[in-house]
Amino acid sequence: MTVDLAALPSPGGKRLAVRVTKDAHRHLRRGHPWIYDASITSVSHDGAPGDLAVVFDDDRDFAAIGLWDPDSPIRIKVLHRGRPTPIDAAFWADRIDAAIEHRRALLDDPAHNAHRVIHGENDGMPGIVVDVYSDVAVVKIYSPAWIPHLRALVPALVERLAPTSMIVRLARSLAPRPDLGLVEGATLHGPMPTEPVMFVENGLTFEAHPTTGQKTGHFLDQRDNRARVRDLAEGQRVIDVFSCTGGFSVHAAAGGATEVRSVDLSGPAVDAAKRNMAHNADVSAVAAATHIGHHGDAFEVMDGLVRRGERFGLVVVDPPSFAQRQASVAGALAAYQRLTRLGLALTDTDGVLVQASCSSRVTADEFFAGVHATARSVGVDLDELDRTGHPLDHPIGFPQGAYLKALFARVHH
Ligand code: SAH
Fold this sequence. Notes:
Blueprint: E1 16-20, H1 22-29, E2 34-36, E3 40-43, E4 52-56, E5 62-68, E6 74-81, H2 89-102, H3 104-107, E7 114-119, E8 128-133, E9 136-141, H4 150-161, E10 165-170, E11 187-189, E12 197-201, E13 204-208, H5 223-232, E14 237-241, H6 247-254, E15 259-264, H7 267-279, H8 284-288, E16 290-295, H9 298-307, E17 312-317, H10 329-346, E18 347-357, H11 364-377, E19 381-388, E20 405-412
Parallel strand pairs: 1-4, 9-10, 14-15, 14-17, 15-16, 17-18
Antiparallel strand pairs: 1-3, 2-6, 4-5, 5-6, 7-8, 8-9, 10-11, 12-13, 18-20, 19-20
Helix pairs in contact: 2-4, 5-6, 9-10, 10-11
Bound molecules: S-adenosyl-L-homocysteine.
S-adenosyl-L-homocysteine is lined by residues 219, 222, 242-245, 247-248, 264-266, 269, 297-298, 318-320.
């Protein structure tokens, strides 16, 4: 299906005038991109999703402008603070140019042709993400407030990214609009791409399914950690737990691992990991490595391997976010600790454990402290090699924007 851009609603002509609490002003001044429903003290009129809302300060001066999102507790997605500015095609063009400029080194690196070009609020565009896989761009929309702005935004993106095709993905909370062609996986520009789309990361070839894959098709945020894993894999047996489509697995094989195991709950993900290995069969180290897929629950698979006394020279554990809500933080920490115990039990002495967390509600300090405390509790010495955070194309624009952290540590039993 093709989105009928011309038929999409336009933002309402009348801007909302909004007053907010002192606390919200403080957050705004610190660069926070969200204004919650509960912080709003007055609104001029009812607005539709995507109408522009102007926040005034106590002196009735312009403080900020953002997208009105009447059905979300994050009622205003802030686009701009300071002096008044029109939100038009030129505004979007500036935002996209700034995001591209920030990523210049990555975009110019021929070892990769897949990147996150717009990382939501962290690039000044709260609620929208744009990823590029070779010549296919994927726009993921997390709020209906973006729909009236697509007509201006899509041409600005097409002009700068020059994709053959541009696909739209809708967050689960977003109601599709089949009447406008706005459904999951529809095209915003160009023909429907032939799936899969092939792309390169660290010089290795992968397939992405941008119309159906998890998120937008591939977890681009682990690119740098995968390169580190490649550098550590020579001559090792490697297990890639929560492998998804095998990003770490393929890098480990390319780095000279003798055997690579990919573990994931999703059968299609494990199958994709096998295909990604095959796409790199021209790399002699990949062709030489034995690849084994385990389709199952990571905790159970790890537990079974521990019971059988299996050990690996390199263990990668990259689970999904365990803390979707604040209330689940304690549970998430407990799950990370269980994974650390299992991961350590699977790591050879002098082998390396790589454990990652993508829960923004678990801070890097809490996570790293948890890994160390667990190692101490089982009498294992950890020799830290590295602590890593976000890659260049996933900038951190505000405190809640930080989510990814990983520990690389040598294990001494
Ligand atoms: N390491 C991957 C990304 C992992 S995303 C990469 O480099 O691309 C998290 C993955 O965990 C998803 O593929 C999901 O299918 C898988 N998953 C979720 N719960 C799981 C479980 N209990 N056991 C195994 N895999 C699980």
